[in-house]
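for the record, two folds in this file. i put them one after another cuz i was lazy. first one right below, seq on top, structure tokens after. the second one comes after a little note so u can tell where it starts
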Amino acid sequence: EENYNTPPSQPLLLATPLSSASPSDESNTAPVDPNMGPIKRGRGRPKGSKNSKPSKKKMETSHDPNNEVVVSGHNDETHNTSFSPHPPLVATDLQAIVPYDDSNHDSLADDDAAPSSDPLKRGRGRPKGSKSAKTPVKKLKPHNPDEKMVIFCPSFDSMITEEVKENGNEELVDSVRMRFNAVCRHLGHVSCEKAVVTTAFSRFTNLGVRTNKKKRIGPVPGMPAGIDYLLAKDGAAEGLTTSVITSVGHYNDKTDELHFLVYTGQGGTCKDGKPRDQELTRGNLALIASQKRGNEVRVIRGIVDPRDEKRKVYIYDGLYVVTYYWIEKGTTGFDEFKFNLVRQQDQPSGFATWKLAEELMKCGSSNLLRKGFVFGDISLGLEALPVPIVNEVDENDKEWPLDFNYRVSSKNLSMMIVPNHQSTGCNNTCKGGQSCGDPTCSCIQRNGGDLPYDNHILLYRKPMIYECSDLCACPEDCKSRLTQSGLKLRLEVFKTKSCGWGLRSWEPIRAGTFICELVGTAKGRDEIEEDDEYIFDTSRVYKTFRWNYEPELVGEDCWEEVSEVYKLRSEILVSARAFGNVSRFMNHSCLANVMWQPVEYETDGQPLVNIVFFAKRHISPLTELRYDYGMSYDTGEIDEGGSKVFTGKRACLCGSENCRGSFE
């Protein structure tokens, strides 16, 4: 209802529903009690509802500019009537007021007029607002082949055949894990969702990016013990769907022993969260059946993340057998099933390796009692973290590599001189003393408008990554200077059985983690010595692989993915024979767990392109770090795809399932 300021001598005119009233006129004015209030609504339809048979004809109105029409429910604004010679006409909801017209008293059709002042009541048919049963179904939007955003991609090719989806291999498992990690990195960066792993797992399942789906008893093809996962479902992407998962502190498990554990059964909680007796169903029944039949059980152990005490890391620990079980009262006072599981022999070390790495972290690099200890720090204090040397192959051999000079950086060894180079920096866009993060930062703009790293992890492999330099206003610990501050991992140089000295980490390494930069002496093609085994050459032929996420797997634009083809001004050749750092001890592998990436920043006003090594996938502690050295010899042959066939000069001993047999 609206309030109007009207002269006291002109009372308001009130009209009943669907009746006609004329403007104030001496010859046509109905006597109205000035003390009468607004007409009250009966118990009909709610205020604002429409007539069950709305009029199909338009209401006729006078064209006199001094006449007004007010239809309640269609005009909620307060009207200013100070300039009108007549007071406004007021009507309650569903009442129409038209100017008086002698020739058209029945301007509304008879069948549209209400028989009385009471509104019509709705029957007991469909609920108010429901559509007619004969309403045509809305047609789906036709598929537009030019549409870039993909929510579901039925034509997506997972590049995994049905055969290997059932039974995988080492290379395929490595590929699926790498693709899965890429999607998790991207989802965690752009959406900050808590259920990143669950979302990625659902995408992979729906689009068929899986392997080892076949239900089996015993080992899983391509899955060695010791592989770690962020969550249990990470492992399920490779077929670990029937494993027993144990956690630290969540259940009453006894998991401190390396070769056996006591596992607490499933259940024991009501829907309202109250404890109750565990029942012989589901997992408990399956473990008892495995014990009776002598079947092997795959086990995943959970430990606290060494880098974050609030998180847990889950480790595949290989095959166990259930030797016996019993029922006892738990801490809640209710019955719990207990299963004693013993690890099978002749398996690669899994959980035991992680526990050994924990002990090494506690004792430090100068543990003289450690088996095969040779020296405490090969960098002689130049690195922020010491790099010990161990020889567990021959404990009596205390010799260590002294045929080179240790350097922590190549800044003065491989600088690239570019004529007429214009120095760039973020002095004008970033505030001094603050880490870069503003999208307008010139260094961020050079990287495509986004920081290349998130939480010290490389997000995407790119043709070139541009970092801040000495000319920038940001501090030395800027997020965009990740590779310029030396080692951040506890590494060690160790003696391998067949490949000389190697490099490994005491810590678990996440995919995309910075490991080290390549340090050495820049060489020309004519300066390379024939017997130099420490040459890094960007012109070699490397096995192609995809490390970045696939847009189709996250429902994004398929045409704007980040290129992974390196963009260099010229080939880079570096020798670590005379000068080097820990990178000179990384051996070759045809199934590498480390990759290299060119990174550019300025030094003394000139661009410096460094070769930097990042983790290609998750790497368990004390696992040897290896990258692909590439191949350089053209055999003159052509493969099935029409590409040239290359081979290397040296025999490969990496031991992977699909080893090429040679490298360099």
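(here's the note) second protein begins now
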Amino acid sequence: EDKGSTVVVVTGESGIGKSTAARAVLGDRTVNRSFDICVWVCLPAKSRVDKYLDQIWKQSDEQTHHGCGRSEFKQVLAKMKSLVVLDGMDSMDELTGVLRELPGGAKGSRIVVTTQLPDEEIKQRRSGVTTVEVKSLEQADCVEFLDKVFSGRCRRVYKENQDKFVDKIYKISGGLPLAVVLLGGLLYFKDHETQWNEVFDLLESYARKRLIKRLLTVSYATMPTILKSCFLYFAAMPPNVPLDLKKLHRLWSAEGIAESESGGGFTENEVLARCLRVLVSRGLVERMEDGTKICIHQSVHGFAKEIAHETGFMESDSKFGIRGASTVRGLSIHNYVDRVIRIDKENCFPKLRTLLGDFAEDSITEVAHAKRGLRKSRLEFLRHSKFLRVVDLHGVKLGTLPDSIGDMIHLRYLGLRSCCLMDLPPSVAKLLNLETLDITDNQVQSIVDEFWKIKKLKHVLAEKLTLPLSAASMDLVTELETLQGVRLSSQWTQENCPIKNMAKIFSLAVVGATAACVRLLAKALEEKRALHHLKIAGDRIPLLRSSRYQPLQYLQLDGKILSDEGAAQSYHTRRPITASRIVLRSSCMSQELLGRFLSQPIVNELELLDNSFTDLKLLLQGDAFKYLKKLKLGNLKELEELVIGESAVPNLMTLEIFGCPKLKKIQGLKNLEQLKNLFFFDMPEIVAQLEAVDKELSGKIKHVRTSAWASTT
């Protein structure tokens, strides 16, 4: 009933569970359906205010498909009923700046802030704020929490000795949730009572240390060497911010962390995956977003950063005040104010093996004035760093790389994302140990042909990178696992297509594809058992078929899909290439063509977007959709009717529809036992129709009326 938004500040000591509680509220379906948008923003400390607004804008566009520009967004947000969570805002100046820029929102809007700031300081600086203090668990509540935490091999010991151990665990942890999680991690692999008592005795020997540090000290002291290296690497990452797991694995691999564990029948990826599982089991890091991201708690990060500094593993700095440069082996720089590296070129880093950097990308104002010329950074300070293995910079304004980059012959990982690069020097071909090149969000369109002869190359990530015209230039690239943002050569043939030699290819993303190139690609991929992710973007894409093809995890096709009616009879004996998750854009498919494409009962998630389906009626029937859990229909301008056949989608849990102005009828949703969420945008007639047919559906529907606030733009 409030006018505008209410600010709710959740306070409490580190590890008390503020973020966990806020995430639980945000993930509640009833709460979610009560707001137009539900946004979670967690950025590194000292991030600029416009970065927070950018995150809110992006997430709201994903949820409501409003399509308004960044400059118009604040006007639109002012009319939305929104729930915005600002997680980990521990600077009063940053919090005040963000709240000042955020518009009030429609009636009933909420801004939830999690912070360690004291109530008194918040109320002095910001009036009209509701504060909620989270306190430690009482022992009765702690028992319930312990039952969830103590799993794995230790669960039997806990259950058999619960009466004996509950008091001891509560006395050690004080009811602090993070302490309980870390203690559970210490005991996770202990399946004998004597081992539990040994852990308790070890903790007692560190009784003078503060609680969290005591638990982390024991955890670190009992780690094998390889696990310590994996853990300390998080000191270079920002706390509480989700990190991409695939990228983390590539960095660990380039560092050679798993080399000491080579052999024993395990691959490098298996060893690193096992290390990550152990870190999660110990409560040191947490998986997020369906397991594709990982994050580290602020308190745990502080400990890792301290140990990394003491052991010389990694130096972290945000003010470029690097001391003892001659002995630094790992350097992590975080600058969220601008895009410049301010390290004097006279500084020498002769022992440097790792350089990681995260910088502020351009704001809207900077982009608008880009022609004035922003200051560019140089990497002269690396000229003596001949032992570099990893360089990963994000957001720093480089413009170009020095030709001397080719002298860093030990370099295994070269990441230059959003660095304003137009090209790469030919000397990159001299990096014979390079495993990963990441130049996403740059304008590099070609690399010297000799680069593709690097035998150890595993991952290449770009935007619109042209591959060599001569397939012979890539014959040696047999270790490639990731190839993203590349153009295929029109001069390749079935005999000399180099992708045939990439037996280990796991993820492939192609842009600017022609029909001839795609047919050639499909043939080359027939033997690729390791392939799990495939993206193809082009004007015309033939219906992909294969005789030996394994189902993918993810398939995305952007472009008109051509019928294969005129193909040879032998071609029709092959099965269409399919996946458990399929995204189609601008595919212009008919019901008949879609039926042939989805002839196998494999798909779990299906997205038909941007006129990917052009018939008036979409019919889901037969066995093809029996495993379908999520269906998204967006911007299908001609669709008038959606019909779900009886027992056709028994596992459907989520249906989302937007941008379908002619859709007037949906049949078959009644009695779908697994259906949990229905998201509709500007579809009052459909919502009224469904609620009239089945009253139970009304509790599952979220209807966003974008027309109420989109008129602002």
